[in-house]
Structure formats: structure tokens, C-alpha cells
Design a protein that fits this description.
This protein has about 290 residues and is mainly α. It is about 80% helix and about 0% strand. The protein contains 13 helices and no strands. It is globular, with a radius of gyration of 19 Å.
């Protein structure tokens, strides 16, 4: 029994289940927007299907990332502790984990609607394909953002079966937000990426320029969030959440410098998770309460 629990915990760690806070809150924003636009009440069955689809897609993506990078992770001191390099999870098991979650994702979308099912292979290609891009392009940060950005528009499609301007704006928000903090995170691998000829914005443009580009991406994030607020005719709860979200982004850039990357993990994992949850909470509350 203890061994079984240990295996389950290993897979939770394997896919960094806590990092779901980067995409799931925005999926809930897209879902709530769709309900508001249609004038519907909450459909609990559909809500659970959307949650499951986000989890299955993310599990497939993260599992494939760990599988594809298993040899790289073994050589990188920062990632050598991960489950495949330490032989806690075998590569074949990791690959089966990816296949099973990809199939579960597609099955889940079938029960949502036909459009989501048709688009599900495209979504899987995007979220899994990101894992290979660091080998040949520094645009990998934006491609990671693109993968996570499917959450708000996907949830909106689940309810409405059509695209909408506001969820597409939140898709852009996620792209630039995620790319911005992923650049900060990649500072930790600056020397390793150079030695392994892996592409990232810090490796290609240097640490100082990388911080400038990250700041620019987060500036665009703020612009888009503000624009979405006016376009969606939100009230004070939205703007409260937006203010907190923006202040957290500013604080991120104050604590990470070219000469001091000791707080990168704080900025990446904790601050962005808090920012996402708080922002989504206020946005959804604005739509429900007001």
C-alpha cells in the first residue's frame, strides 16, 4: 500500500501537479465568460469535463516534456533529481503515461462537443511540441505560452462552440505572461544551455537583454489585461484583481537581477501561481456578483 502511494506521489511530482495554477485559473475565466455571454447557468457536468480536459492535456504535455528531455535532465545538475534521471519512473512508463493522458484528453473533449474533439489533436501537438523547440529556437518561451494559452479559449469553446474576442485576448495575456516568467526561469540554466547548445532568450541575447525582453512581455500582459477590462465592461472587482496581478509582476522584476537569480524560483513558482489565482478569483467574482 505504501509503495502504491509512493508511486502516485512520484507521478504527481513528475508532472508538477501544483503548476496547474498557471493554466487552470485562466480556463475558469474562459468558462465563466462563456456562461456570461450565453446567459446560461452553471452546468456542473460540463464544468467537470473542462477541469478534466485541462488536467489530462497538461499531464500529457508535462509527461512528454520529461520524456523528451530525459537525457538533458540527467546532465543538468538542476534537473538531475527528476524522476526519470533517478530511475523512479522508467522512460517507457513515462511514455505510456503520456499516451494514456492524451487519449483521456481526446475522449473528454468528445463528451464536451464536436468542435473541441476535432481541435483536440491540434491542442496536443501544440502543448507537447513545445518540449522539442528549445533544441532549435529561442522562441520556445512563447511556444510554451501558446500551449498554456489554449486554456481560456478552450474552456470558452467548450460552452459556446465558437470563438470570442475577449477569450482570445486572455489567450494573448497568457502567452506573454507565461513567456515572460519562463524567461526568468531559464536564467537558472544560462550556463548549461550554452554548454549544451540549447536555445533560450538568455542564452541567445544575454541575461540583461533577457530581463528587458521579459519585462516587455509582462508590460504587454498588463496592457492586454487592462484592455480586456474595458472591453468586457468589468467593474471594481476586476480592477482590484488587475491591480494585484500587476503589482506582483512588478515585484517579480524587482527581485530578479542579472547578478542575483537566487529568487527566480520564488518569482516563477510562487508569485505567478498567486497572481493567477488571485486575478482569476476577482475576475470570476466580478462576473458572478455584479
Amino acid at each position: 500500500m505504501n509503495k502504491r502511494i509512493g508511486n502516485i506521489r512520484s507521478y504527481f511530482s513528475f508532472v508538477k501537479i501544483n503548476h496547474t495554477v498557471f493554466s487552470l485559473p485562466f480556463a475558469l475565466i474562459g468558462f465563466s465568460l462563456a456562461i456570461r455571454d450565453k446567459g446560461d447557468s452553471l452546468n456542473l457536468r460540463l464544468f467537470l469535463l473542462v477541469i478534466l480536459s485541462v488536467l489530462f492535456a497538461r499531464n500529457a504535455a508535462m509527461g512528454f516534456n520529461r520524456y523528451a528531455d530525459r537525457d538533458i535532465d540527467k546532465r543538468n545538475p538542476r534537473t538531475a533529481f527528476r524522476e526519470i534521471p533517478r530511475d523512479i519512473i522508467r522512460p517507457s512508463s513515462a511514455l505510456w503515461f503520456v499516451v494514456v493522458n492524451a487519449l483521456l484528453f481526446m475522449i473528454t473533449t468528445w463528451f464536451i462537443n464536436l468542435l473541441c474533439f476535432i481541435l483536440s489533436p491540434v491542442a496536443l501537438i501544440v502543448v507537447c511540441g513545445y518540449s522539442l523547440t528549445k533544441r532549435f529556437t529561442w522562441l520556445s518561451h512563447l511556444l510554451l505560452g501558446l500551449g498554456l494559452s489554449l486554456a481560456p479559449i478552450g474552456a470558452y469553446l467548450a460552452v459556446t462552440s465558437r470563438f470570442g474576442v475577449l477569450p482570445l485576448i486572455y489567450t494573448l495575456v497568457v502567452i506573454f505572461w507565461v513567456a515572460g516568467f519562463d524567461i526568468l526561469y531559464s536564467l537558472l540554466d544560462y550556463e548549461f544551455d550554452k554548454s549544451e547548445n540549447l536555445r533560450s532568450i538568455p542564452e541567445t541575447f544575454g541575461k540583461i537583454n533577457a530581463l528587458v525582453i521579459s519585462g516587455l512581455f509582462h508590460f504587454l500582459t498588463v496592457v492586454l489585461v487592462v484592455y480586456a477590462g474595458f472591453l468586457g465592461n468589468f467593474s471594481y472587482l476586476y480592477w482590484t484583481g488587475t491591480t494585484i496581478f500587476c503589482l506582483i509582476l512588478i515585484y517579480e522584476h524587482l527581485i530578479v537581477t542579472p547578478g542575483d537569480t537566487s529568487k527566480v524560483t520564488l518569482a516563477f513558482a510562487i508569485l505567478n501561481g498567486v497572481a493567477s489565482i488571485v486575478f482569476a478569483g476577482f475576475v470570476i467574482a466580478d462576473m458572478i456578483i455584479l
